[in-house]
Amino acid sequence: MELIKRALAHAFARFEAVFEYAFGQRNTPFAWLGALGWYFYWIVAATGVYLYIFFDTGITDAYASVEYMTHDQWYAAGIMRSLHRYASDALVVVVVLHIFREFAFDRLRGRRFFAWLTGLPLLAFIYLCGISGYWLVWDQLAQYIAVATTEWLDTLPLFGEPIANNFLNSTTLGGRFFTLMVFIHIFGPLFMLLLMWVHIQRHSQAKVNPPRPLAIGTLAVLVILSLVFPAVSQGPADLDVVPAELGFDWFYLAGYPLLDLVPGGQLWLYLFAAFLVLAVLPWIPPAERVPAAAVNLENCNGCTRCFDDCPFGAINMVPRSDGRAYESEPVVNVNQCTSCGICVGSCPTSTPFRRSGPLQPGIELPDRSIADLRDELVAGTGETRVIVFACDTGDTDELEQDGVKVIRLPCVGMLPPSFVDFALARHHAEGVMIAGCAEGDCQHRLGNDWTIERMARRRDPYLRQRVDERRLCLSWLPRDSTRRRQRALAEFRVTLSEIDDE
Amino acid sequence: MNRVVQAFLYAAFAAFVGYLSVAPAYQYADPEIAVIKLSLSHAAERVEACVKLTPQQINERAMKGEPINECERERLPLAVELDVDGATVLSLAAVPSGLWKDGPASVYERLAIDAGVHTITARLRDSARETGWDYAYSEEVSLAPGRYFTITFRAENGGFEFR
Ligand code: HEM
Ligand code: SF4
Ligand code: SF4
Fold first, then answer.
1. Same domain for A51 and A154?
2. Which residue's CA is the nearest one to ligand 2's atom 6?
3. B104 preceded by cis ω (within 30°)?
4. Which of A251, A330, A379, B73 has a CA-to-CA distance to A364 between 20 and 30 Å?
5. For each of chain A's 502 residues, which pLDDT tens digit applies?
6. Are both A400 and A346 inside the same structural domain?
């Protein structure tokens, strides 16, 4: 499993490099696949509402009403129809990539299982909505879908009489089933929205809106596609005619040809098995059990910064329980905490300058204490010229070299800015480099965003004003960027030596 | 950031989405071929005939509010055969629906066949008889290419219906 993930992650890194070059790191679509999913959903929903105004929901007139929209009103409803189709297709593209990417980057295991599991029914709903949508056009493709789908459903022991009989020939055609599809196509998406909302419940500040350039760009390209290549129907349905050649939307219908190759019952079995396999992936293999962040009330002043910064919504502020004069205290939900340490970096009491008593901040990872971090920083500093704080996620082994000390953290978001000040002010190093994930694509979601803001003195806790920014290097790079990272370090060391020469 | 590459990637995305949304076409059926659809639902006789009650027994039961027929619920499987030009192309036994096999049995089959004139014979057995059929129907029909020919069955209309 580890190998599959690594190979896949490597493939993504290769592919994404082109996009990073074209779009810039922050706006690269791959960092925003989930957000693009939301965005396409909204486009589909908005265009769908417009189409519904002109759509005739009866099976006899549905086709004509769609034809009217496509041809007579091509400039409005026609474009809406095309957008509706293409945005639905784009939704499948980004969601499929989203699934593979979350899997490849291992953002599903252990306490992160929630989004993965709630994503699975979403996947089913996307198909339910898309297939019922093609049904409504009631053209030859719709006829094929109606017959193939009901025949497939009939392989389940659910219905007394075959439901495919609804579409046996032109004399048996009834509107009831069609009405059911209209119903599914309206309420399916609404329920899907609810599921999408559930999907991101364990993410604080979930990325549901793509950055503006990306939003404008994708909408523009879909509109152009709709104008150049409008979506059309494929001739009215006639249940007495065998559909021969069908223009196929492979994003939604790719599975249908299988129905002509494999018995339907068997296909249900495969589908069920596939979902089952997907459903257990978060536990294959089981994640290492790293203890959750723990609060030390004696040192906590209830400032709520950890609550604000936790990317997984694992911290709740509750009324103070120890009688001290503060309003509230944080409580960590151990089933939701991913042990990323980002809360530790946000806590104003995580400062290495403290002398009185042992160094113990208000919140801390039991397996990676702030006291140990300070010891590691201070140890053998004689030879150290640069300290690199790096994420466990990144491949930073290659940064080890003479005069460079690499200190690993679960996420660089765990680093309190005071440690940078401490390292420089106490001359433990001439420069500090922070080596994290690509901007907007932190393995722990918000670690690098918060770090960028803290170091830029825009977010609490701020980096002290006295820190010479030239001695701090922030390096945000995607995976598999060893060479670029080494180059960044080399350049930083040149800068440092230039400062010393002044 | 490179706007030229960006434009190229956008265009590639649009082409990818636009193309796969209708192509390549899927060849579902040969337009020169006709397709026979056979669909029927029919309750076969029960495995064991209902116990014949005397009028007196029926009266008694009716007075007590008990059911007035006494039947085992299970039904026989339905045997269905289809011949085209004398050759048997389909022969199956359909199991009754329901947990106690007491419901109607259903058959739904699609058969591709060369267009043209054919003699089609459909037969059905819904009883425990060893030989012969309870229903049979034969007709010489002309099958048009690319069209469905449906065979249905309704006992109350006398059996098979060709269309
Ligand atoms: C309509 C379809 C979907 C939409 C709109 C969607 C959207 C999103 C969004 C907005 C996020 C949050 C990203 C962030 O803020 O970091 C997310 C995360 C995630 N999604 Fe989806 N998603 C969809 C389907 C799926 C499916 C089908 C799966 C997998 C089976 C899936 C798995 C995940 C995972 C594993 C995460 C990350 C969880 C984490 O970071 O701990 N999603 N999704
Ligand atoms: S370690 Fe990470 S997930 Fe856990 S409480 Fe702290 S910020 Fe939240
Ligand atoms: S950031 Fe630190 S001091 Fe503030 S509430 Fe959290 S644990 Fe307490």
1. yes
2. A343
3. no
4. A379
5. 889 999 999 999 999 999 999 999 999 999 999 999 999 999 999 999 999 999 988 888 888 899 899 988 899 999 999 999 999 999 999 999 999 999 999 999 989 999 999 999 999 999 999 999 999 999 999 999 999 999 999 988 877 788 888 888 877 777 788 899 999 999 999 999 999 999 999 999 999 999 999 999 999 999 999 999 999 999 888 888 898 889 999 999 999 999 989 999 999 999 999 999 999 999 998 888 899 999 999 999 999 999 999 999 999 999 999 888 899 999 999 999 999 999 999 999 998 887 667 788 999 999 999 999 999 998 876 777 899 999 987 777 788 888 899 999 999 999 999 999 999 999 999 999 999 999 989 999 999 999 999 999 999 899 999 999 999 999 999 988 889 999 999 999 999 988 877 7
6. yes
Tell me the pairing of strands B135-143 and B116-125. Answer: antiparallel
Whether A23 is in a domain gets the answer no
Cβ pair B21:A86 closer than 8 A: yes
Q: Specify the ligand 3 atom closest to the Cα of A304.
A: 5
Measured between beta carbons, the chain A residues lying within 8 angstroms of B29 are 242-244
Q: Where are the domains of chain B?
A: 2-162
CB-count burial class (<10 Å; 0-12, 13-18, 19+) for A247: middle
Compute the distance between CA of residue A396 and CA of residue A482 in angstroms, rounded to an integer: 7
Which residue type is seen at A281? L
* Statement to judge: residues A279 and A305 lie in one domain: no
The reply to whether A158 touches chain B by the CB within 8 Å rule is no
What tokens were used for A253?
């219908």
Structural domain that includes position A114: 29-283
Which residues, numbered 438 to 457 in chain A, qualify as contacts with chain B under a Cβ-Cβ cut-off of 8 Å? none
Q: Verify whether the Cβ–Cβ distance B148 to A256 is below 8 Å.
A: no
ipTM: 0.91
Q: Do A242 and B31 touch (CB under 8 A)?
A: yes
Query: In terms of domains, do A105 and A57 share one?
Result: yes
